[in-house]
Predict the 3D structure of the following.
Amino acid sequence: MPQDDFVKGIAAAVAVMPGIVVLLDAAGGMRGLSVAARAWLGDQAQDGANLELLAVQVPDILSSQQLRFATAVSRAGRAVHFACRRVGRPADGGPFVLLQEDRRVRGGPDRVQQLAEEEQKEREYRLRQEAERWRSLSMTDPMTGLLNATGFRAEAAQLMRRVSSGTVMYLDLNGFKQVNDRLGHASGDWVLTNLSRRLRASVRLGDLTGRMGGDEFAVFMPDCPADELPVIVERLQAIMRYEFEPEETGFETSLIVASAIGVARYPEEGRSLHDLICLADARMYQDKSRSGCRGEEVAQLQLA
């Protein structure tokens, strides 16, 4: 868009804005005025005429992306307090300063300083919220909504520093490769999503659940009594199971997805999360072997 057209466009927008609104160029010249601003300025309301600001100058506003506050006085002696923003780019003929009347500014320099501090706190809060949102996204598995491997390791390591004991469980799905190979990846994705939902719903509020990659999952349960583990493992094995009936598969037999689980105790069997995950992973493969499953050779479990 040509620069003149941009200036005309933004000036036209300012003209219909409610309240006292003024558009200044980099030299402080008025390039756009609302109806209320023209009434306030009277015969001062001329295109290109300078508007003198108190407390802050145009270069100060243009040098920052932060909201600033200023006051201007008409020839008739009426003072108006403004919130000031930098708008536009050099390519558009800018930057410009947009002044919008802000009745909160009334109260003198102390009130202006208070508003500036409030605006700074609000901006910092929004930045923290945005940073936390991106951090959460970077640590979450998009398919299942569980923590991803990076997120699980970070959250579990932090939680371990705050508790005296805990349990790491490592889970792998037996039969999952058969689902992908025979029914397609859409069915495999459905299984992962469904079983992840079950897993998250089956643990306590303070427990951590993560998808470590592929069809492998991990759980960290802080302060979990050792004598309850057999019951918990049995319950998880029942929950992390899904059967495709023959009419769903198109084969004569069913396809069953079930879980192999390995467990490692903190701090009795390791004090670092890495060591505990390695131990639990090794025990998961022992459990897989007892089920007749080794490595990537996943058995097709059948019902009679």
